[in-house]
Amino acid sequence: MQTSLFDPPVLNLYHFELQAQSRGFKRIAGIDEAGRGPLAGPVVAAAVILHPGQSIEGVNDSKKLSEKRREQLFELIIKQAAAIGIGQADAEIIDRINILQATRQAMLEAVRALPVPPDYLLIDGITTIASSLPQQTIKQGDSRSASIAAASIIAKVTRDRLMQDYDQRYPTYGFARHKGYGSALHLSALQKHGPCPIHRMTFARVAPKS
After folding, report:
1. Quick check: pTM over 0.90?
2. Which of 32, 38, 161, 185 could covalently link to 151 via disulfide, CB atoms 3.0 to 4.6 Å apart?
3. Quick check: is 49 in a domain?
4. 117 is a domain residue
5. What is the pLDDT along the chain (210 residues), one digit of tens a residue?
6. CATH number at residue 47
7. Segments forming the whole domain that contains residue 27
8. For residue 208, is it within any domain?
9. If you write DSSP's letter for every residue of 56-114 in order, what string do you get?
């Protein structure tokens, strides 16, 4: 369902998009990631361009939504967004260049995957990416920008589905339940079985103690 862009709560969520539009930008991509903190699996980034003048009802920071609601909004965003791009960096890349640089790489990959080229980037957090496009970082952007919030949902649901697939490949660890985060179940499995190929070996709670 779509609501008017000028409803007060929606208007607040579109502040940064409207600001960019007032400067002449037309294809504004919100960018966010999922999976910086887990001990296993990739970090996944998404870039989303929403149609100007419309909003998708219920879009918000993915961490504030139930799994069921995220799945519902994921399908709405897929249908209604102007463009979506997804990028990821696996555990090997994370271990090689560190999680911050791997996140920036995944975000850049998501931007490059957009079928419609953006002319402005809104990025969750405080770190820019290696793109010549004009870009703005926004602290807590996933709760302050509609396009970043949409990207957070796409990234989170995409990563959760990947971790469910990994659970089939490595059932010992319970990835479908904790998505690679350091839960008691996950840490217990790590202690008993050691890491598997998708674990981040440079993370302190994964690396075996000498």
Report:
1. yes
2. 32
3. yes
4. yes
5. 444 454 544 558 899 999 999 999 999 999 999 999 999 999 999 999 999 877 888 887 667 888 899 999 999 999 999 999 999 999 999 999 999 999 999 999 999 999 999 999 999 999 999 999 999 999 999 999 999 999 999 999 999 999 999 999 999 999 999 999 999 999 999 999 999 999 999 999 997 655
6. 3.30.420.10
7. 2-193
8. no
9. ETT---GGGS-HHHHHHHHHHHHHH-SEEEEEEE-HHHHHHH-HHHHHHHHHHHHHHT-
